[in-house]
Amino acid sequence: MSRTPSSRPIRAGVIGVGSMGANHARVYSELPAVELSCVTDHDDAVAHRIADEYDTEAVPFDTVLERCDVVTVAVPTRAHYDVVSTCLEADVHVLVEKPIAETVEQGRKLAALARDRGCLLQVGHIERFNPAVQTVADLIDDLEVISLEAERLGPPIDRTAPGNVIFDLMVHDVDIVDSLLDDRPNSVSAMGTDGGQYATATMEYGDVVASLTASRVTQKKVRTLTVTARDCLVEVDYLQQSVLIHRDSYPEYLIDDGTRRYRHESVVERPRVDNGEPLRHELESFVEAVRTGSEPVVTAEDGIEALETVQLIDSLIGEETRTPEVRAR
């Protein structure tokens, strides 16, 4: 069965220490009551460099499983299933970077394996831990939501084969909208252009509609969410970790020298946002769930549902037709 320490430090490892995995190693090394036990990577030079930087050891994959209570899996998506299943079979708790796997069926098998082994499997939808999103999550139940609009835009990345913009970027907002509404879409429509590097999707949740845009051809980095509610407009900036709530004020009619004038000023509220690094919040939550045996904030089932939706969006766009379609669940 899984290893769940009670008093000693939790021994953490990172499997795959590219740009994302290296950040996981950094944060694990900083967390109290956590020991960064070791790291591994297919590139030994990279593994040793990260190990030296964070005062740990670069070891083979099998050794990670022998030493660690928990691991982050930050390898390419095509390897998620094999690596995560091996970790779970070794009774090691896993945080796997999104998406949970290449296919929904693989994701379901991983979720079942985690249950059978008594292991925690958390999916790395990091935006759930953005303080601005957490602030909106606290507000959402009091709002009569009409629509949500998310934009996740940026310039081309510096690599020859950029990943799919839907799976790499839009998946974050699919997960956020599902979690805020505590629901899944009834229908989805989508279209894209520029070889799949710009995509839009519209998702219907009963009386609520969500519009998502993801782009790698926009010459400005944008990460925003707008919630239109019956009595207010909520603007979220992921990068600034800020939330603004715009409310209607009552109009005023002023009489000056016999002339009636109209003035209508908006009211802007700025709720407190406890700023912090989302990755640190994510790993703190993961470690706490392991220590207490509680359910993770982002479950394997959450990861599977997000993957199902982005796979549908990708299939609607397609590589050849690029025409909008609608499919109801």
**Beta content:** 25-35%
CATH superfamily of the largest domain: Dihydrodipicolinate Reductase, domain 2
Number of strands: 16
Helix proportion range? 25-40%
Structural class: alpha/beta
What is the global morphology? globular
Mean pLDDT: 91
Number of domain modules: 2
The CATH level-2 architecture of the largest domain is identified as: 2-Layer Sandwich
> How many separate helices?
9
Strand order of the main beta sheet, please? 15-12-11-10-6-9-8-7-16
What is the CA-CA span between the terminal residues?
Answer: 37 Å
Give the ordered list of helices and strands.
Answer: EHEHHEHEHEHEHEEEEEEEEEHHE
At the first level of CATH, the class of the largest domain is Alpha Beta
Question: Describe the biggest sheet?
Answer: 9 strands, mixed
List segments where confidence is low: pLDDT < 50 over at least 5 consecutive residues: 319-329
**What is the third-level CATH name, the topology of the largest domain?**
Dihydrodipicolinate Reductase, domain 2
Q: Compute the CA-based radius of gyration.
A: 22 Å
InterPro entries: Gfo/Idh/MocA-like_OxRdtase_N, Gfo/Idh/MocA_Oxidoreductases, GFO_IDH_MocA-like_dom, NAD(P)-bd_dom_sf
Protein name: Oxidoreductase domain protein
Pfam families: GFO_IDH_MocA, GFO_IDH_MocA_C3
Domain Gfo/Idh/MocA-like oxidoreductase N-terminal: 10-125
In words, what does this structure look like?
The protein has 329 residues and is α/β, with parallel strands linked by helices. It has 2 domains: 10-119, NAD(P)-binding Rossmann-like Domain (Rossmann fold), CATH 3.40.50; 128-277 and 308-328, Dihydrodipicolinate Reductase, domain 2 (2-Layer Sandwich), CATH 3.30.360. It contains 9 helices and 16 strands. It has a 9-stranded mixed beta sheet, covered by helices on one side. Strands 2-1-3-4-5 form a 5-stranded parallel beta sheet, sandwiched between helices. A two-stranded antiparallel sheet has the order 13-14. The longest helix has 18 residues, at 300-317. InterPro entries: Gfo/Idh/MocA-like_OxRdtase_N, Gfo/Idh/MocA_Oxidoreductases, GFO_IDH_MocA-like_dom, NAD(P)-bd_dom_sf. It comes from Natronorubrum sulfidifaciens JCM 14089. This is Oxidoreductase domain protein. Residues 10-125 form the Gfo/Idh/MocA-like oxidoreductase N-terminal domain.
